[in-house]
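Hey all, quick one. A colleague (J.T.) asked me to put the zinc ion job into the tracker so the inputs and the structure tokens live in one place instead of scattered across chat threads. No bug as far as I know, just bookkeeping. Sequence used:
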Amino acid sequence: MSKKVPSIAKFKYDGSITRALVVVAHPDDVDFGSAGTVATLTKHGVNVAYCIVTSGDAGGDDSTHTKEERSAIREAEQTAAAKEVGVTNLAFLRWPDGQVEPTLMLRKEITRAIRTQKPDLVITQSPERNWERIYASHPDHLAVGEATLRAVYPDARNPHAFPELVREGFKPHTVDEVWLGGVAPNMVVDITKTFDLKYAALRRHVSQVGSRKGLKKMLRSWSKETARRAGMKKGKLAEGFRVVATN
Ligand SMILES: [Zn+2]
């Protein structure tokens, strides 16, 4: 585990990605996992949109807010966080937090999001459990990862899947590749220059991380470890993904 893995590729922007869609379960998931990558993409001029499946109404704070109030707060926090990394296009599907399953209805809603944004790249959570870190594999994360992969293939490209969407004007769209966060990366994105933006985005989730000390240190040490495992130079920071060709 402590050896470097030379087979991990380093992402280099070649202009082939112009539109990307991030699909995650909760407000703050994108910022913990891939906001440094999102900032890197938007700096290259990539149009990035977010599709957030729940509004985090069961999120871990001890406030006395109602579910509706908590959802509103967390949507506002995610919207502010997105702005830090150059994203202003957000859709909240408002599924109940903690109860997400990869159902046909969720596949349909993600299919609609894909056909709306028409991304070359979809970034989502791994449907595979991470046995090293229980928090990475919240059941909602596994469900969203699975539903998103099912939406990418076959639903979004298949005109006969959810024909009512076609009638509503959402034409079939084929996504070229998917990047899964969380498990067994085979590609890393150098986020050394966008790390501060990632941290700024994460700090916007005040209801979740407001009083947490050592957040930057923790984030930096994760990013350093990801870079080190990919054989990057000392001092480099990275986010890792499992790249899946889907075209
Ligand atoms: Zn989450």
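Adding what we noticed when we looked at it: The longest strand covers residues 47-54. Residues 25-26, 29, 138, 141 surround zinc ion (CB under 6 Å).
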